[in-house]
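User: My collaborator sent over this chain with a note saying "see what the structure looks like." That's all I know about it. Can you take a look?
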Amino acid sequence: MNGTPQEKGHPQRLFDGRIEKRLPMAVPVYVTSAKEPRDMEKTLTQNVSPHGARVVTKRLWRPGEEPLVTPLTGEFPQPARVVYCRPSGNGGFCVGLKFPGRSVKWGGWPVG
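Assistant: Without extra context I'll predict from the sequence alone. Here is the result:
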């Protein structure tokens, strides 16, 4: 016995930096810059949690930028913070967003 958590009866957890599990869900949203609210893009989420989401967008966002995200499910615009922005395979970008304020109620359909 070398004292690993599994041998001590504790399930081993791998921490990926998230407290909440993301659900693969396509939710239609509007994403816009708080500085340029007229430049609005309608897009879909890839996954969601009460305090975060991953969206696909045509625009390159920089970590730390603060877009407004409006789910088309009747929620009010939500201020978000860009955590990461990576190129997607179709010429757009996958953007990880964190919602520092209240939690977001998502409506949508499972991705799959």
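A starting point for your reply to your collaborator: Residues 1-16 have pLDDT under 50 and may be disordered.
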